[in-house]
Design goal:
CATH topology of the largest domain: Rossmann fold
Number of domains: 3
Strand order of the largest sheet: 3-2-4-1-5-6-7-8
Structural class: alpha/beta
Order of helices and strands: HHHHHEHEHEHEHEHEHEEHHHHHHHHHH
């Protein structure tokens, strides 16, 4: 996620961050590097100019050059400007209370990930306590209705579909059903085209006028860079947008879309797609993303991810086992499952301050957790509950059953012993307990 941009900004932060004194020349050189980094990230040229001019004007003042920590002061200016570029603060969905109906219209070009995003958004709102109905209004793309039906079933949300060629008729009938059956949130998945054209806009305008949405959200592909901002501007001028969802954000190494959108369109980014999983849609926090770009990490986001996947009762039980050293391989297997729910190891490491932009992707063993899980699942439950009984013959059997080697089984058992010791130390760390187990 934003690896290339983060790597360049991290270098700039390291160069100036620790300096006891800086000159106007230092500032100019750093701003020039920032300018090049933004242009390489495919950020809109007008946005780059505005960012660079504002940063240069503020950073060359006496407040920075003669301050106690001028390097840190400069980094703070860059960080604050970056936050402003991304949208200042988190913009949530503007929905009515559960006693009334809220309509969300999803728009976008074909291939932007609109249908997948519709299901993820439905899953997110369902988990927030809302009763959601998904409506299949994409009658253009072959299998779009079937895709939404399958995704709806996966996330446990009802999908309204109809054998019709008129999306406006489908939309109206779906609204009647939603009112009748007390759905408080209705999400419409609409048709897209390969490019913005009059036929597409005319259809979207007719649907919009029929359903009167509270939120009209463009689903834009992060990988398209600043083109995403141009597409958003076109949709906003024709149909009117309330915000943007950036799909495939986890695959975006540059960041041009995120950094261009707010300035070009004036519309906030409300969510980002962070994986293919149903839970892979996250609220967009400008300050946290700015921190990750500058190599400052996002420890708050990491803790929130952990708290979302760790059951509180299980966490309390794990804490007890950590403290008295009774943790077993069965517990270890459960932790692997929880870690997998949090997303890729690489993305988690990038959320730790100081590591963003410094991670060599080739050195991250993405298959490591899968192999460990295979080894653990090849053991009997009795062996997982008491790893001390796993002698040479059992290790040979486990290696064969998991498609690994005896050396890998031995390595896992040694790692588990070390993990138990580390966990015991963590159990005594009050700050760690407050973060991971939610204690007051």
């Amino acid at each position: 996620m934003l690896e290339k941009l983060s790597e360049k900004f991290s270098d700039i932060v390291r160069t100036l961050g620790g300096k006891a004194s800086i000159t106007e020349k230092n500032v100019e050189d750093a701003v020039e590097q920032i300018k090049l980094a933004l242009l390489e990230a495919d950020v809109n040229l007008r946005v780059v100019r505005r960012f660079v001019n504002a940063t240069l004007e503020e950073a060359k003042g006496e407040k920075v050059l003669k301050s106690v920590n001028p390097g840190q002061q400069f980094i703070k200016i860059v960080h604050d400007r970056m936050v402003a570029l991304l949208g200042d603060s988190r913009q949530d969905l503007q929905l009515r209370g559960p006693d009334t109906q809220s309509v969300i219209l999803l728009l976008g070009l074909q291939g932007s990930g609109k249908t997948t995003t519709a299901a993820k958004l439905a899953f997110h709102l369902k988990n927030s306590g809302r009763k959601v109905l998904l409506v299949a209004c994409d009658l253009q793309r072959p299998a779009a209705i079937e895709q939404l039906s399958v995704l709806g079933a996966q996330v446990g949300v009802e999908v309204y579909r109809e054998d019709s060629k008129d999306p406006v008729k489908v939309a109206k009938t779906a609204l009647e059903k939603a009112k009748r059956e007390l759905f408080d949130t209705v999400i419409f998945d609409t048709a897209g085209r390969l490019q913005v054209d009059e036929a597409l806009m005319d259809e979207l305008l007719r649907i919009r006028d029929a359903v009167k949405p509270l939120e009209s959200l463009l689903v834009a592909d992060s990988m398209t860079g600043q083109s995403a901002a141009d597409i958003a501007k076109a949709f906003d001028e024709k149909v009117g947008l309330t915000g943007v969802i950036l799909s495939k954000f986890d695959s975006d190494a540059r960041g041009g879309a995120a950094l261009s959108l707010k300035t070009v369109t004036g519309k906030p980014i409300k969510f980002i797609g962070t994986s293919e999983k149903p839970e892979g849609l996250e609220p967009f926090y400008p300050e946290r993303i700015a921190g990750r770009i500058l190599g400052m990490g996002d420890i708050v986001g990491l803790v929130e991810k952990a708290q979302a996947v760790f059951d509180q009762k299980q966490a309390a039980e794990l804490e007890r086992k950590m403290a008295d050293e009774t943790m077993t391989l069965e517990d270890y297997l459960e932790q692997i499952a929880s870690v997998k729910k949090m997303g890729s190891v690489k993305n988690m490491l990038e959320m730790i301050p100081g590591l963003a932009g410094q991670i060599d992707e080739d050195k991250i063993d993405g298959e490591g957790l899968k192999r460990e899980e295979a080894i653990l699942r090849s053991m009997t439950k009795r062996e997982r509950l008491n790893h001390l009984i796993i002698g040479p013959s059992r290790r040979t059997r486990v290696a064969k059953g998991s498609g690994t080697s005896v050396a890998e089984v031995n390595r896992l058992l040694k790692k588990f012993e070390k993990t138990k010791l580390m966990m015991k130390k963590m159990a005594k760390n009050k700050k760690y307990q407050q973060q991971m187990f939610g204690k007051a």
